[in-house]
Every structure is written in C-alpha cells, then in structure tokens.
Amino acid sequence: MEAVRMPGGKKVYSKRYPPAPETMEIIHTQQSAEERATTKKSFDEFLRRIETESTYVLIPERIDRGKHFVALAIELSQKYEIDIDIWQKSYFIEVNLHLFCSSYPSELTRYIAELFTLCDRFCSFIFPQEPSDFTLSLEFDTHKYYLSGKLINE
C-alpha cells in the first residue's frame, strides 16, 4: 500500500457559535460596590440554604465502580506521570487530571475514554496555580443528592 502525504490536511467541518447576547452583557457589565455587597449577601444565603437543605443517600451498588474509577485514574497517573488530584466530595468522587495541550498515545486515550465512560459529569478548568495548560475534572456519583427534597443528580 502506497503512503499518501497530505500536507495541511483538508477541513471537513467547522462551525463557531456566537455567545448569547445576555451572556456577553453580564460579562461586560461592571457592578457597583452596593451591587457586589447585595450579590455576596444573596450568595451567602444561597450557600446556607444548600448546607441546611441538602441530603445525601449512599448508592451501595456504585461502591465497586467508584473504587475502579479511582484505581484506573491512579494507574493512568502513575503510568504516564500525569499530575492528578482525587477528592471525595459530599456526594461524588472528583478526579482532576492536570493536562497539557499535546498529542497523547492511543493507550492513554483508552484510559481516559474508560474514565469518561465511568464518570457522571466532566468539566475543564484553567487553574493559574497549576503548571498544566488545563485541568480535566471527572466526577463519579457515590450518593444521591437531594436539595429541598428534589433529586439533583439523576
């Protein structure tokens, strides 16, 4: 089979979605000191309400999968020397992989794919205090979380 060189490649699809106007308005609006104080008071009340109205119920059938999730993340970290933090939170386990913008080998990709398969949510952050380019945060629910009697993490 003859190798074909494709310099630059060919774009197959591209689309950019503009941010919602209301989002841009919030981002570019300056708050007065009074508005910041009101916001802080509302936020503090919101946190107090969460603390007093939260209930957590262990999901026993997820214990073994949670252990596998943690073990797999540790194995990935040790094998590829990827910086990692694992936290037990109120109703979930959080695995933070501190990654760089790079090309990763297929075996590492399979580890991350399995972590994605196990996790319930994920997000990414840029933490200035971390030497990595970004942090991939994967969450695995260990408890059902109810707020004011309503199930939050279905």
Characteristic terms for this protein:
extended, alpha+beta, 7 strands, 154 residues, 4 helices, three-stranded antiparallel β-sheet
Would you kindly provide a written description of the structure presented here, covering whatever features stand out?
With 154 residues, the protein is an alpha+beta fold. It is 39% helix and 25% strand. A 4-stranded antiparallel β-sheet has the order 2-3-5-4, covered by helices on one side. A 3-stranded antiparallel β-sheet has the order 1-6-7. A hairpin with a 2-residue loop joins strand 6 (143-147) and strand 7. The longest helix has 21 residues, at 33-53. The model has no long low-confidence stretch (mean pLDDT 90).
Overall mean pLDDT stands at 90
The description of the largest β-sheet is:
4 strands, antiparallel
Shape: extended
By DSSP, the count of extended strands is 7
Strand order of the largest sheet: 2-3-5-4
Backbone CA Rg: 21 Å
- Spans of at least 5 consecutive residues with low confidence: none
Q: Topology of this protein?
A:
Elements: H1 21-28, H2 33-53, E1 54-58, H3 63-80, E2 83-88, E3 92-99, H4 106-118, E4 121-125, E5 134-141, E6 143-147, E7 150-151
Antiparallel strand pairs: 1-6, 2-3, 3-5, 4-5, 6-7
Helix pairs in contact: 3-4
Summed up:
The protein is of the alpha+beta class and 154 residues long.
